[in-house]
Amino acid sequence: MMKKLKQVFFATLIAISSTAGAQEQNMQETGRAFLRSGDFENAILVFNRALASDKENRELKKDLVLAHYYKRDYSKALEIAKSLIDDDDADVMSFQLAGNVYRALEDLKEATRMYRRAIKKFPASGPLYNEYGELLASAKNGEAIEQWEKGIQADPSFAGNYYNAAVHYANAGNKVWPLIYGEIFVNMESLTERATAMKKLLLQQYKERLFAEGNEPKNESEFAKAFLQTVQKQGSVANTGITVETLTAIRTRFLLDWYASNATKFPFKLFDYQQQLAREGMFEAYNQWLFGTVENLPAYENWSRTHNDAHAAFTSFQRSRIFRVPQGQYYR
């Protein structure tokens, strides 16, 4: 009889615990719905009530930081964010949230200290390098690019560092890295406004910089020098102007020369991907997608209609894969 009573007791405890956990989860989802709708006061109310019965729930605390942040109550957001990052179990997102609050408060000194601490704890986090670089860039600190480069090297499959680095190098007049980093970024993040902006930057770089006289790279890596020498061999093709068609020809010939002389020394995912597309008859469609959509959208749409099979094959292929750069292919 006693054994049976114990079994009933423990079963009841489990049921109560499960019910409580489900209730907190439901409250969290309710709070997030308020957050998405812009009702920050109700979101804060619900998150606080959920935390009252589960004071150590880190996910609820993160949601509460966001709610106060969006409400622009940065002091309260910072108070909760500090409790998150001071915990031994602090994760990357906790530091990102704290960073957003410090940046909103324009507290450069504390934000810098926090990001350095975060990167020391998570030295392979691309997002942390990216956001620290953005903080430095907002303060006109030239060391921003160093953080984005470290992010690319440590976490090559995170897109944000490629975007910021490409823009930085384009503004600096560099001929190589805007093209390399920009195209990698577009393949990682292809459906956003930033991707469209990067496509425009790539086309501009090919038109205005790549084949222009002077401004040759100094103190560049062997990879960058090899890339520039190989692609500039096709300069005569640019004599008729830079269009999607001439870019396709230039880039096709570049691949032939690169794989004949440099691919073994410098294995590189972006060029491997381009070569795969060329080998499978999709490189023209890829270049149309990369440049045609921003050069002349009606012309691109007409090309897609008149080359429906090629367009459909590339689109299907692109949607079926995720572009990632492997570790070890860092040549900056």
Automatic annotation (TrEMBL):
Keywords: Signal, TPR repeat. InterPro entries: TPR-like_helical_dom_sf (IPR011990), TPR_rpt (IPR019734). SMART domains: TPR (SM00028). TPR repeats lie at residues 24-57, 92-125. Residues 1-22 form the signal peptide. The keyword Signal applies. SUPFAM superfamilies: TPR-like. It holds the Pfam family TPR_16. This is Tetratricopeptide repeat-containing protein. It comes from Cnuella takakiae.
